[in-house]
TrEMBL record:
SUBUNIT field: Homodimer.
Pathway annotation: Amino-acid biosynthesis; L-threonine biosynthesis; L-threonine from L-aspartate: step 2/5; Amino-acid biosynthesis; L-methionine biosynthesis via de novo pathway; L-homoserine from L-aspartate: step 2/3; Amino-acid biosynthesis; L-lysine biosynthesis via DAP pathway; (S)-tetrahydrodipicolinate from L-aspartate: step 2/4
A GO BP annotation: lysine biosynthetic process via diaminopimelate
Residues annotated for NADP(+) binding in this entry: 11-14, 39-40, 162-163, 317
Organism from which the protein derives: uncultured Sphingomonas sp
Name recorded for this polypeptide: Aspartate-semialdehyde dehydrogenase
Length: 342
């Protein structure tokens, strides 16, 4: 027997990717429901590449009783309204929004990093998916932390427009086209022109001058990996459609060489080390799209601090940064808490 899985926000970028990954990984399904707002009710969307389709159902009227898990990819307001309703009906919620990430009663999970927290069933019936930029970074950092104990992380991100949803992708496409044909470029989704530009501003500004995206990377890394780690981030939107990149500087308590780090990363779950010190011997966002792995390149020692390393980390943000991580959590929950009779 399989599971009954509902995908909330099924018509969005991440929701569609969740459905694609459920199909790709042959998740044991008895039934899958595609849920969205009333605007999309009745639309037909693809489920995998086999030609199978699903008719979108209205989330407002959906009864979660009897459903095993719900993967939410529709934003914090939708999660606030409907995640507790699903959990109260006995359906475990895996939420991709930021709403529950820092709730002490809600586990914030990257399976390769802290999957052991799912050994017990979530108290509120909700598991939080981390921010996309955090997820890929902690996958790369976890095995190095285990080996040499991380003291401090300084990260600069290069985040694709797909992190801002379909509207962000449309804006990059339209602005690029307009520039080529000589039409005007008016920012709508982003605060400034994104085509042929970079914007050091993701999410809202906080009182200390950082943005909420930068704050998320700090607090989520501490919750997932280790509260003792000091983290500072600068998050930048770049004119790339899919794939987040990060330049990560790490300071350790114990000595660790670049070669030792490479050897560790080469064997680490979820990591693909591509690190040849030659032209093209590294991974860029274009190459990571559609892949499950978090790619690490440019591993080298930082001579300006004691026990320091630099890393280049790249991943498909719609996959490991969102949809894949949610499906991996569902796989783990299914094995631990929702065993089905054969």
């Amino acid at each position: 027997m399989g599971y009954r899985i509902a995908v909330v926000g099924a018509t969005g970028n991440v929701g569609r990717e969740m459905l694609q990954i459920l199909a790709e990984r042959q998740f044991p399904l008895d039934e899958v429901a595609a849920l969205a707002s009333s605007r999309s009710t009745g639309d037909v969307i693809d489920f995998g590449d086999s030609g199978e389709t699903l008719k979108v159902k209205n989330l407002e009227h959906f009864d979660f009783a009897g459903w095993d898990m719900a993967l939410f990819a529709a934003g914090s307001e939708t999660s606030r309204l409907h995640a507790p309703r699903a959990a109260q009906a006995g359906c475990i919620v895996i939420d991709n929004s930021s709403l529950y990430r820092m709730d002490p009663d809600v586990p914030l999970v990257v399976p390769e990093v802290n999957g052991e927290v799912l050994a017990t069933r979530p108290r509120k019936g909700i598991v939080a998916n981390p921010n996309c930029s955090t997820a890929q970074m902690v996958v790369a950092l976890k095995p190095l932390h285990d080996a040499a104990t991380i003291k401090r992380v300084v990260v600069a991100t290069y985040q694709s427009v797909s992190g801002a949803g379909k509207a962000g992708m449309d804006e990059l496409f339209n602005q690029s086209r307009n520039i080529f044909v000589g039409d005007s470029v008016e920012p709508q989704k982003f605060s400034k022109q994104i085509a042929f530009n970079v914007i050091p501003h993701i999410d809202s500004f906080l009182d200390d001058g950082s943005t909420k995206e930068e704050w998320k990377m700090v607090v989520e890394t501490k919750k997932i990996l280790d509260p003792k780690i000091k983290v500072t981030a600068t998050c930048v939107r770049v004119p790339v459609f899919v794939g987040h990149s990060e330049a990560v500087n790490v300071e350790f308590e114990r000595e660790i060489s670049a070669k030792e780090a490479q050897d560790i990363l080469r064997q680490s779950p979820g990591v693909m080390l591509v690190d040849k010190r030659e032209d093209g011997g590294y991974v860029t966002p274009v190459e990571c799209v559609g892949d499950y792995a978090t790619f690490v390149s440019r591993v080298r020692e930082d001579p300006t601090v004691e026990n320091g390393l630099n890393l280049w980390v790249v991943s498909d943000n719609l996959r490991k940064g969102a949809a894949l991580n949610a499906v991996q959590i569902a796989e783990m929950l299914g094995r631990k808490h929702l065993q089905k009779a054969a």
